[in-house]
């Protein structure tokens, strides 16, 4: 099915407004309301005016709009751009009969008409600027412009407008939208339904669609499982923006259409006709239409949405292989993330720019809201339905289609009916949800992939990916490519801890496919995962050769009596000839293990009462044996039977994974000569373990060894040094305060020599190691990539760490005695310094100049009662510890009120690492000193003030040397949780066309309740940045305008008192930093004269596929820029040019 929107060559509405007054409140809300009504609106995202002439794109947008809405606010006339816009709009009113609606936003129409009050002040400043112009021609042009502006203000005030004074803004905006829609003739059908919980995705795609990239071809792929909202999101943004493009087309349900006879050909014909307005009467072949579509797309700028792409053939047939016209935008929705970049379009001469949006479902809050809309026609549950609503939301796990379908089906039913339905849903999913998910499963390229999907859904969700791969590969499943295919189709995820993750509904769908093999007779299915059904089948001895896998955990049975009395006889498995996967947790087995199927690959017997390995374990195909939490006392595959002196007849030479973790009675592990294929040895937290036999050297295939928290282990086997393939060695907590024997010796020189040179990961956490314990170098570990030194009493990063040439991740969490971390390897990508001790002593972190960007975890926990400097990046210190002469040099005097207002401390939150109480502190970065405190008091030495989120002023003349600017603003917070996002600050020198956007090192503060906060900062500007007569504008922007409101701004100029050397030296250290205002900010430059001062570009924090920032600009820097930025972080300049 193809949906076509006819070409409309203009905008329907142009919004003219003064950004500092209304951008982040009234005008933003009006803009969103217009979009929701399906009205294509031009909204200028640029906040700062550069140059004297109106931007060409603004002039073009005004001329190509059917209507203009002019928001006349207090500072509207202070902007020459706004006045130029106004004059051009009124000109278009006369020439093209453009509809004009003035809105008087807290200003009197009379003041606009007669240029009184703030409008008089603004015109007076323009006149002063005109009189200051020395060029006669320019002065004459200014005079002509001023006459035109005055006439325009008078004319617009005489038009029939709308006054917002004493009105509720939401009702007022609704009235404006209804009026403009009526006057434009926009039908009600254009009104878009709200997309719950997709605000950030809509903003991201809207920004992408309107980025003005007319020289490139842009492709965006929306990826997600079936029913997650891909089509709804694509349809939403298409409806909003399709009219802005010369040709636009939405091709819907492609995969389903292609299943019909000539389905793909019919889609091609329709698409070609609608983008070219021509019909090919003779062609009746997919390849011919592919060529013709390619010809059209190469000639015309288009906006196309291809919905539900299922294969490369479909994509190539609908996009051709000749490339697209510059400026074109393509949105693809699919459940296969790998398709887009493999299509022919990406092999064309000019490759498109590609971005990806992954939809992972709604939050719990948004899920509940969506459910209530469909079930109760409200945003909240009805009385008595709160608990069942939350239970249903939990079942759906953020899946929009499931929430919508189930909400509608339960509408007007009582609570008992809801409860019964939820119970049934847990057994079998709703048919509509099942159908949506089946499409993703059916798209898997092979039966082998589908079998892998069912195996994982039944047995391996939550298990380690590498372990699962090893087991399933032994089951003749192509795991490596299979897992990639499942992940690409959003059927599977890999967690941060390498665990397999699956959405609950997807897992239920996989299990449902197995259940449908025999709905009423479980023993005839290929897999049994339900513990109750497994119990019955085993008890009744009905298991046959069709079974591939079975799971039984006695703890999961509802009837406690059954758990206590059941003994499973191994004869129950005698007819299960093809059983490969067997889980028998906390089951007491009776009988010989010879009865276990020979095809077993995975035997999991957690909690087994066995005290030793049975004599008759002869499963020659077994690759994984899990005896964790069992009562086993000794594991030795080669020892003799102490009673019969007979050699064990075991045959487990294929065993690759041995898990004996948490076996508290285990004291020895040996007989490794019988395990030549062993790859993973796990004896974690075997607190009774005394010895791991030196015969471990026979396990030449070992890649992973975990001996963590084996407190009584006498020593680490020296034979480990002979192993050539070990990549991971975990020795956490092997030196216990309660143990008399040190597994990890205080002197690590010997153990370092015995470690495998092949190691990629080494963990020595919680071993009471001091700096003296470490050898001079770790050069023997040349392959090491991850090193964990958590919870050790080291006072600095050990010197040997610097000798690791490939180290990428270093963890020093809870090392509470650390004072400094200096010069880690240049290859490092992640440094973790989390701590629960708020009074830890870390004072300095220093990186080498050639370091690449890295992730720094845990900085929030070290701010309290301490000072910290990340060399060349940021310095943090308690205000009480700042020298008086420094405060005096900043012009900060009489600050007692700050201490008074902060008896109750704030909690800071930095880089996603958690929060901590902190006293009032001073932060320094980029040549900016700042502090924030409770209350709304601005220091009395800041005299220039303005209500609202912005302030403008002209730097006055002075015989003294300008040292910088002091800026203070107060804002009220309405936290939705305990946290309040800190705003961003922008300072612009309009005269010099320079702009600095500052995003603070602190990300959030926790305040717990509605309150007022104040932010005081000093910017070290020099004469190269600012001088007398320069016009300065300061704007405060909040990330979430509904949670914070700026109340007042203040600004003051700081001068040298008399230029004394003592005062100059007080800030000398800070001026020596390289990346400060007046220094080298090239790595932070976005465009000419515009700088993004954001250290998060280097010290990264986790984020989603798309971050949301205020509408200043896109703050993301590419990797090359990040490298440039950090290259000189530690390089200090003795003198900055600006000083």
TrEMBL record:
<dbReference type="InterPro" id="IPR000157">
    <property type="entry name" value="TIR_dom"/>
</dbReference>
<dbReference type="GO" id="GO:0007165">
    <property type="term" value="P:signal transduction"/>
</dbReference>
<dbReference type="InterPro" id="IPR036390">
    <property type="entry name" value="WH_DNA-bd_sf"/>
</dbReference>
<dbReference type="InterPro" id="IPR058192">
    <property type="entry name" value="WHD_ROQ1-like"/>
</dbReference>
<dbReference type="InterPro" id="IPR035897">
    <property type="entry name" value="Toll_tir_struct_dom_sf"/>
</dbReference>
<keyword id="KW-0675">Receptor</keyword>
<dbReference type="Pfam" id="PF23282">
    <property type="entry name" value="WHD_ROQ1"/>
</dbReference>
<protein>
    <submittedName>
        <fullName>Putative toll/interleukin-1 receptor (TIR) domain-containing protein</fullName>
    </submittedName>
</protein>
<dbReference type="InterPro" id="IPR032675">
    <property type="entry name" value="LRR_dom_sf"/>
</dbReference>
<keyword id="KW-0378">Hydrolase</keyword>
<keyword id="KW-0677">Repeat</keyword>
<dbReference type="GO" id="GO:0043531">
    <property type="term" value="F:ADP binding"/>
</dbReference>
<dbReference type="InterPro" id="IPR027417">
    <property type="entry name" value="P-loop_NTPase"/>
</dbReference>
<dbReference type="GO" id="GO:0006952">
    <property type="term" value="P:defense response"/>
</dbReference>
<keyword id="KW-0520">NAD</keyword>
<feature type="domain" description="TIR">
    <location>
        <begin position="9"/>
        <end position="184"/>
    </location>
</feature>
<dbReference type="InterPro" id="IPR044974">
    <property type="entry name" value="Disease_R_plants"/>
</dbReference>
<dbReference type="InterPro" id="IPR002182">
    <property type="entry name" value="NB-ARC"/>
</dbReference>
<dbReference type="InterPro" id="IPR058546">
    <property type="entry name" value="RPS4B/Roq1-like_LRR"/>
</dbReference>
<dbReference type="Pfam" id="PF01582">
    <property type="entry name" value="TIR"/>
</dbReference>
<dbReference type="Pfam" id="PF00931">
    <property type="entry name" value="NB-ARC"/>
</dbReference>
<dbReference type="InterPro" id="IPR042197">
    <property type="entry name" value="Apaf_helical"/>
</dbReference>
<dbReference type="GO" id="GO:0016787">
    <property type="term" value="F:hydrolase activity"/>
</dbReference>
<keyword id="KW-0611">Plant defense</keyword>
<keyword id="KW-0433">Leucine-rich repeat</keyword>
<dbReference type="Pfam" id="PF23286">
    <property type="entry name" value="LRR_13"/>
</dbReference>
């Amino acid at each position: 099915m193809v949906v076509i929107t006819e070409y409309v060559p203009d905008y329907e509405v142009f919004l003219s407004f003064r950004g500092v007054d209304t951008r982040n409140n009234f005008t933003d809300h009006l803009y969103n309301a217009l979009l929701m009504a399906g009205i294509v609106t031009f909204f200028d995202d640029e906040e700062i005016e550069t140059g004297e002439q109106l931007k060409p794109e603004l002039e073009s947008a005004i001329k190509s709009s059917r209507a203009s809405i002019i928001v006349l606010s207090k500072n509207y006339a202070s902007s020459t751009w706004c006045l130029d816009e106004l004059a051009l709009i009124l000109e278009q009113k006369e020439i093209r009969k453009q509809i004009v609606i003035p809105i008087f936003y807290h200003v009197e129409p009379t003041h606009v008409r007669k240029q009184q009050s703030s409008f008089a002040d603004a015109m007076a400043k323009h006149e002063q600027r005109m009189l200051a112009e020395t060029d006669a021609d320019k002065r004459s042009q200014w005079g002509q412009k001023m006459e035109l502006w005055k006439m325009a203000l008078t004319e617009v005030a005489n038009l029939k407008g709308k006054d917002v004074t004493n009105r509720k803004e939401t009702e007022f905006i609704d009235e404006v939208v209804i009026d403009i829609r009526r006057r434009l003739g926009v039908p009600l059908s254009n009104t878009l339904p709200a997309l719950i919980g997709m605000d950030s995705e809509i903003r991201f795609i809207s920004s992408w669609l309107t980025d003005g990239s007319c020289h490139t071809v842009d492709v965006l792929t929306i990826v997600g499982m079936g029913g997650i909202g891909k089509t709804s999101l694509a349809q939403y943004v298409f409806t909003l923006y399709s009219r802005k493009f010369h040709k636009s087309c939405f091709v819907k349900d492609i995969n389903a259409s292609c299943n019909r006879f000539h389905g793909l050909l019919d889609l091609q014909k329709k698409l070609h006709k609608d983008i070219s307005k021509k019909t090919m009467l003779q062609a009746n072949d997919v390849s011919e239409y592919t060529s013709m579509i390619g010809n059209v797309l190469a000639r015309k700028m288009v906006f196309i949405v291809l919905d539900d792409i299922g294969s490369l053939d479909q994509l190539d047939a609908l996009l051709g292989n000749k490339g697209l016209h510059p400026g074109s935008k393509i949105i693809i929705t699919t459940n296969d993330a790998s398709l887009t970049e493999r299509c022919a379009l990406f092999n064309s001469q000019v490759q498109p720019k590609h971005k990806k949006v992954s939809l992972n479902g709604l939050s719990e809050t948004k899920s509940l809201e969506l459910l209530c809309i469909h079930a109760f026609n409200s945003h909240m549950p009805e009385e008595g339905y709160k608990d069942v609503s939350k239970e249903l939301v939990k079942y759906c796990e953020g899946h929009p289609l499931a929430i919508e379908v189930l909400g509608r089906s339960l509408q007007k039913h009582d609570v008992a009916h809801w409860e019964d339905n939820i119970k049934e849903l847990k057994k079998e999913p709703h048919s509509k949800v099942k159908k949506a998910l089946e499409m993703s499963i059916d798209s898997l390229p092979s039966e082998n992939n589908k079998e892998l999907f069912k195996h994982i859904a039944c047995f391996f969700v939550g298990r380690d990916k590498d372990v699962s791969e090893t087991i399933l590969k032994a089951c003749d499943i192509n795991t490596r490519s299979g897992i990639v295919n499942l992940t690409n189709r959003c059927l599977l995820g890999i967690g941060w801890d390498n665990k397999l993750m699956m959405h609950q509904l997807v897992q239920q769908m996989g299990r449902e496919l197995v259940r449908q093999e025999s709905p009423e007779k479980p023993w005839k299915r290929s897999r049994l995962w339900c513990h109750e059904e497994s119990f019955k089948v085993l008890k009744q001895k009905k298991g046959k050769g069709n079974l591939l896998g079975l799971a039984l955990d006695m703890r999961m049975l509802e009837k406690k009596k059954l758990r206590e009395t059941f003994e499973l006889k191994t004869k129950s498995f005698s007819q299960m000839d093809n059983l490969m996967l067997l889980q028998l947790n906390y089951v007491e087995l009776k009988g010989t293990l010879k009865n276990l199927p020979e095809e077993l690959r995975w035997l999991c017997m957690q909690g087994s009462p066995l005290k030793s390995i049975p004599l008759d374990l002869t499963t020659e195909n077994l690759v994984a044996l899990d005896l964790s939490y069992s009562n086993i006392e000794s594991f030795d595959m080669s020892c003799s039977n102490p009673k019969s002196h007979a050699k064990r007849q075991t045959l487990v030479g294929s065993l690759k994974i041995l898990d004996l973790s948490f076996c508290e009675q285990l004291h020895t592990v040996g007989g490794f000569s019988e395990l030549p294929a062993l790859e993973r040895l796990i004896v974690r937290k075997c607190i009774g373990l005394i010895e791991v036999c030196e015969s471990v050297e026979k396990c030449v295939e070992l890649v992973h060894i975990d001996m963590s928290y084996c407190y009584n282990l006498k020593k680490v086997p020296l034979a480990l040094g002979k192993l050539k393939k070990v990549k991971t060695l975990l020795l956490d907590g092997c030196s216990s305060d309660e143990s008399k024997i040190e597994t990890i010796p205080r002197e690590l020189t010997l153990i370092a020599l015995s470690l495998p040179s092949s190691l990629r990961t080494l963990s020595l956490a919680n071993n009471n190691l001091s700096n003296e314990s470490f050898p001079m170098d770790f050069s023997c570990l040349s392959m090491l990539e991850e090193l964990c030194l958590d919870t050790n009493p080291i006072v600095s990063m050990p010197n040997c760490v610097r000798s690791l040439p490939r180290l990428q991740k270093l963890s020093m969490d809870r090392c509470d005695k650390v004072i400094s971390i200096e010069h880690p390897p240049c290859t490092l990508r992640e440094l973790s310094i989390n701590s629960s001790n708020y009074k830890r002593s870390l004072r300095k972190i220093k990186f080498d100049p050639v370091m690449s960007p890295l992730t720094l975890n845990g900085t929030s926990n070290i701010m309290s009662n301490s000072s910290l400097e990340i060399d060349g990046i940021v310095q943090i210190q308690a205000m009480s510890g700042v020298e008086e002469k420094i405060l005096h040099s900043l012009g900060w005097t009489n600050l007692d009120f700050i201490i008074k207002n902060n008896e109750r401390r704030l909690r800071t939150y930095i880089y996603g690492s958690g929060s901590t109480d902190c006293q009032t502190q001073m932060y320094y970065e980029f040549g900016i000193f700042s502090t924030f405190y409770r209350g709304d008091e601005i220091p009395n030495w800041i005299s220039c003030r303005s209500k609202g989120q912005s302030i403008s002023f002209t730097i006055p003349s002075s015989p003294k040397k300008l040292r910088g600017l002091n800026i203070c603003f107060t804002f009220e917070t309405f936290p939705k949780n305990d946290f309040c996002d800190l705003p961003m600050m922008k300072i612009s020198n309009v005269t010099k066309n320079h702009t600095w956007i500052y995003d603070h090192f602190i990300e959030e503060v926790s305040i717990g309740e509605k309150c007022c906060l104040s932010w005081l900062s000093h910017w070290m500007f020099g004469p190269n940045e600012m001088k007398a007569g320069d016009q300065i504008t300061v704007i405060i922007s909040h990330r979430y305008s509904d949670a914070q409101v700026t109340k007042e701004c203040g600004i003051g100029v700081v001068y040298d008192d008399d230029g004394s050397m003592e005062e100059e030296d007080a800030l000398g250290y800070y001026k020596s930093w390289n990346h400060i205002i007046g220094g080298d900010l090239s790595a932070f430059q976005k465009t000419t004269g515009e700088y993004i001062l954001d250290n998060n570009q280097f010290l990264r924090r986790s984020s989603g596929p798309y971050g949301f920032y205020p509408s200043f600009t896109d703050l993301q820097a590419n990797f090359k820029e990040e490298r440039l930025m950090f290259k000189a972080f530690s390089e200090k300049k003795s003198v900055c040019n600006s000083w």
